[in-house]
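so my prof wants the structure for this chain in the tokens format not the other one, which i didnt know existed until like an hour ago. anyway here's the sequence
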Amino acid sequence: MFKGITHEREIARAILIDENSNVCLEKILDDDGFGPRDYYETPGGGVKPGETHEQALHREIEEEVGYKCEVIKHLADVDDYYNLIYRKNHNHFYLVKRLSKVEQHLEPDEKIRIEKIIWVPIDEAIKLYENMQNVLVGKIVKQRELPILKLAKIALQSKTK
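here's what i got, hopefully its the right format
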């Protein structure tokens, strides 16, 4: 049952690739107020007041993954809803290339929630998402990000032609 929206959040997310076009995914493993979590998610997070989406993206990638990055292109925007906390998210997805390594600065809750960071070929990333849990927050993440990974694959293929 939909309970309504009391607030909205702007979020910048990255399909972050390395020099071999492997995609960065965060393995989320936790059990909290949203229930059991066991899924993959792209790096990113909330846009702070006064930040642009791209500024937030750079900050979040440095904090979560530990890399400077370069935005290649905007891929798409996706809205999703967290009924439990009455929130609508406006997710802005970008194709982003990693550059130099910097120090990672995870928030305390991220240290608990992010089990590991992996780099996999785009086809493997898509397969991981197709086989992800299809309940609770995992379902939201899968619905939000699987189509974006498929868009990123098309963008990467056209870039190499």
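also thought this was worth mentioning. The first helix runs from residue 53 to 64.
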